[in-house]
Write a structure and sequence with these properties.
The chain has helices at residues 2-35, 185-188; strands spanning 37-39, 57-59, 77-79, 97-99, 117-119. The chain is α/β, with parallel strands linked by helices and 209 residues long. A five-stranded parallel β-sheet has the order 1-2-3-4-5.
């Protein structure tokens, strides 16, 4: 009898913790939707497909495996945001400011991140196919094995970025700055690097007509 009472107490305690966590997440979601603010919030797995979250402030936000496909996050600021495995395809990310954000294996295909500043972003194995990355700043970003095929990186700053194993087939790197970037000649041979500054400081004429 005592054993059954003890077990029931444990289950009740677990349910209380679970309900408390759900209530906390609900408050975090409310703050994001109503106030466009998400500070240290726990919102992994949320579905924000197509939502207008323009000018949001995401500070140390847990948004792993979340759904933001087609959403608007333009002009948002994100410090240490965790988007690992998130779906950000076709998202409006123009003029966003990311510092040390985690986008490992995130789906950013077709996204528009023009004129954004993504410093020290980790985009390892991220899908950036057909993305608009014109005038973006990816200083010291990790783009290892990222899919950048057919992405537009015109005038982008990739200073010190790690592009080891990245797929650059059809990528447009016109006038991009690749100074001190880690990338092989083979990877660059698949892209348009006309007028781009190469890792060694020279200017490329590959793809110029």
């Amino acid at each position: 009898m005592k054993s059954m009472t003890f077990t029931a107490a444990i289950i009740a305690s677990m349910m209380t913790v679970s309900m408390s966590a759900q209530a906390q997440n609900a408050e975090h979601l409310k703050a994001l939707l109503q106030n466009r603010t998400c500070q240290r919030c726990e919102l992994s797995g949320i579905d924000a497909t197509g939502l207008n979250l323009r000018e949001s402030f995401l500070d140390v936000a847990d948004l792993r495996k979340s759904m933001f496909s087609g959403a608007t996050l333009a002009f948002s600021t994100m410090y240490y945001a965790d988007f690992r495995g998130a779906n950000l395809s076709n998202t409006d990310l123009r003029n966003t400011f990311l510092i040390n954000s985690d986008l490992i294996q995130a789906n950013l295909s077709g996204t528009n991140a023009r004129n954004s500043r993504w410093k020290y972003a980790d985009l390892t194995e991220a899908n950036l196919q057909n993305a608009n990355l014109i005038d973006i700043e990816l200083v010291y970003a990790k783009l290892n094995r990222a899919n950048l095929s057919n992405a537009s990186l015109r005038n982008a700053s990739l200073y010190g970025a790690d592009l080891t194993g990245a797929n650059l087939k059809g990528a447009d790197l016109y006038r991009a700055d690749l100074t001190n970037a880690i990338v092989s000649d083979l990877e660059l041979s698949q892209a348009n690097t006309c007028r781009a500054t190469l890792p060694n400081g020279t200017t490329s004429l590959q793809g110029c007509k």
